[in-house]
């Protein structure tokens, strides 16, 4: 590739991302937020030899993987709120690495670098959840983006006639299962990933590789499955939130919160205009990477972009009909932020990589 980013620049960008995540964990350690207090208490109990909870205390959802990660740091460095928050900050940093790999696979290393930087410099709300253990959103960002990356990569290889080893499908299933245990908010992620693999296989899903993927999913989601089998599938009660909103109300809510979630501030323009501007910017930026992928006869960028677009459509469709759209918070649109950062990097990187100075 012409003018790739220097390795030192890549290292410095990711070092800055890591330090930013750790900084949030440090400055938020004295927060009195109730959600954070529960996560810290879970990490403390596990680090001190207590039982491993499946979900957040008092809940039948929100898997405990992030507090368990916090317990590991408490075990290594001593029990404390900062150590517990590292269980959020480090997965958030790893999510930026996955963002880099996915955007790079679509449009090269400059796209990956812009995407990772965009993920780290998004709104204060997104940054807070990436260093503050409040519901597993950092783990959702890591596992969800990883799942989309693996699905697009495997689908492209299947389409081109290169059969990946069953172990790769096992890994995809394991990541998807762990994501499902962490939060039901990844339902759109799993559906988009499954659809991408189905297309890549051209519908021929009766094979050993798919069985390996299913086995991996059962392993990753085992805590969720076992607990729900013993508790009347209580976690599925969240499905009752669907169908609770009218589209005329919820679509403007989604567009406004999405504008805020990516760090563009409180919008003063009509919501539908905001949505048009976001779509137009991203669509215009995809012209170069799609043209280059077609010229080089590379199916991988098409499958990655298709998987991301499937995810956005499915996530938006479920959000606008759920009661969560009624709640005045950005947390429920945060899974869209890494994907939009990837599309931003893909749109911005190819336009600027030929310049002598990079923005």
Keywords for this entry:
359 residues; mainly alpha; 16 helices; globular
Describe the fold and architecture.
The chain is mostly helical and 359 residues long. It has helices at residues 7-27, 34-47, 65-77, 81-107, 109-120, 124-129, 137-159, 166-182, 187-200, 208-220, 222-230, 247-261, 271-285, 287-295, 299-320, 336-352. It is globular, with a radius of gyration of 20 Å. Helix 1 (7-27) packs antiparallel against helix 4 (81-107), helix 7 (137-159) packs antiparallel against helix 8 and helix 7 crosses helix 15 (299-320). The chain contains 16 helices and no strands. The protein is 69% helix and 0% strand.
Short description:
The protein has helices spanning 7-27, 34-47, 65-77, 81-107, 109-120, 124-129, 137-159, 166-182, 187-200, 208-220, 222-230, 247-261, 271-285, 287-295, 299-320, 336-352.
- The helix/strand order is HHHHHHHHHHHHHHHH
Round the Cα radius of gyration to an integer and report it.
20 Å
- Treating each run of at least 4 consecutive H or I residues as one helix, how many helices? 16
Low-confidence blocks of residues: none
By secondary-structure content and strand pairing, the structural class works out as mainly alpha
State the helical fraction: 55-70%
State the assembly state of the protein chains: single chain
Quote the distance from N terminus to C terminus. Answer: 18 Å
Shape: globular
Question: What is the number of strand segments?
Answer: 0
The largest sheet is: none
What's the overall average pLDDT, rounded? 88
Strand content: under 5%
């Amino acid at each position: 590739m012409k003018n790739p980013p220097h390795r030192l620049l890549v290292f410095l960008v990711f070092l800055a991302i890591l330090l930013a995540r750790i900084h949030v964990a440090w400055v938020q350690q004295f927060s009195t937020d109730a959600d954070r207090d529960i996560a810290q208490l879970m990490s403390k109990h596990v680090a001190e030899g207590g039982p491993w909870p499946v979900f957040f205390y008092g809940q039948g959802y929100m898997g405990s993987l992030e507090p368990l990660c916090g317990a590991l740091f408490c075990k290594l460095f001593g029990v404390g709120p900062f150590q517990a928050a590292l269980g959020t900050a480090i997965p958030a940093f790893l999510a930026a690495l996955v963002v880099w790999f996915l955007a790079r696979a679509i449009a090269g290393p400059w796209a990956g670098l812009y995407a990772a930087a965009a993920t780290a410099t998004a709104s204060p709300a997104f940054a807070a959840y990436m260093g503050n253990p409040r519901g597993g959103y950092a783990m959702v960002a890591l596992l969800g983006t990883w799942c989309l990356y693996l699905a697009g990569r495997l689908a492209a290889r299947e389409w081109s006639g290169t059969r990946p080893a069953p172990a790769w499908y096992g890994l995809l299933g394991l990541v998807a299962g762990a994501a499902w245990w962490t939060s039901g908010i990844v339902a759109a992620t799993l559906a988009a990933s499954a659809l991408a693999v189905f297309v890549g296989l051209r519908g021929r899903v009766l094979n050993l590789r798919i069985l390996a993927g299913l086995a991996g999913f059962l392993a990753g989601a085992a805590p969720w499955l076992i607990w729900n089998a013993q508790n009347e599938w209580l976690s599925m009660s969240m499905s009752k939130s669907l169908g609770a909103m009218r589209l005329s109300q919820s679509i403007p809510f989604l567009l406004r919160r999405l504008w805020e979630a990516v760090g563009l501030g409180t919008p003063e323009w009509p919501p539908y205009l905001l949505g048009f501007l976001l779509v137009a910017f991203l669509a215009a930026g995809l012209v170069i990477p799609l043209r280059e992928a077609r010229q080089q006869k590379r199916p991988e960028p098409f499958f990655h972009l298709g998987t991301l677009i499937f995810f956005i459509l499915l996530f938006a469709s479920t959000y606008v009909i759920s009661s969560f759209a009624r709640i005045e918070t950005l947390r429920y649109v945060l899974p869209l932020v890494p994907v939009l950062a990837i599309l931003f990097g893909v749109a911005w990187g190819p336009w600027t990589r030929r310049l002598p100075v990079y923005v």
